[in-house]
Amino acid sequence: MSKVLLHTLATIVMAAFLVANAQASTEGIAAAPEQVSPLLPGLSVPNITLKDQHGNNVELQKRFAEKTTVLIIYRGGWCPYCSKQLANIQEIEQQLANLNAQIIAVSPDSPEKLAQSKISSPNYLLLSDDSLTLAKALGLAYFLDDKTAAIYRNKRGVNFVDAQGKVNVALPVPAVFVIDKSSVVYFQYANPNYKVRLTEELLLAGVKSIENQ
What we know:
The protein is α+β, with helices and mostly antiparallel strands. The chain has helices at 3-26, 60-64, 80-91, 93-98, 111-114, 133-137, 146-152, 200-211; strands spanning 49-52, 57-59, 68-73, 101-107, 124-128, 141-143, 158-161, 167-172, 175-179, 185-190.
């Protein structure tokens, strides 16, 4: 077999590998926020390992097994609506703790970004989903339109390269899940309109209902 043919075959194999990787990386990401399919109550959250603000690995199912979990998926510390939501939930942190519930807030922010957060509590854990692994598993990831992506790229969101080599920027739709100790979703709220968030009263009611089972 000639060197030219070998080189051609190697190029084809490499191209196929790159295309496959690109397709895998974008799999599970909706084309728009209105097209996401959030994980429904009664279904289990996959066991995914994320990093905390110190870069330590955190296995979600191990944390879920400890107590009822309020899982908050937010867009990032740069989002004022997300920051307000986290602050409001921090105000009811003690009430949640009294219900034997912990708070886990996850965003695409890097561990280094999370380390800059003012939230510091043993019952309020911040985790980094900077590859959107959890957001995709929960059915919340979506691509930004080109105009918005031009503003957010390299600043907010996560970059993905598709099979054609185009860079797309993705974010999670903000959501709140109440998860029991067996990693099953008991309550879920997700809204494509990132300006509208779950009220603290409804969240407390959701947690109370699971604790009363």
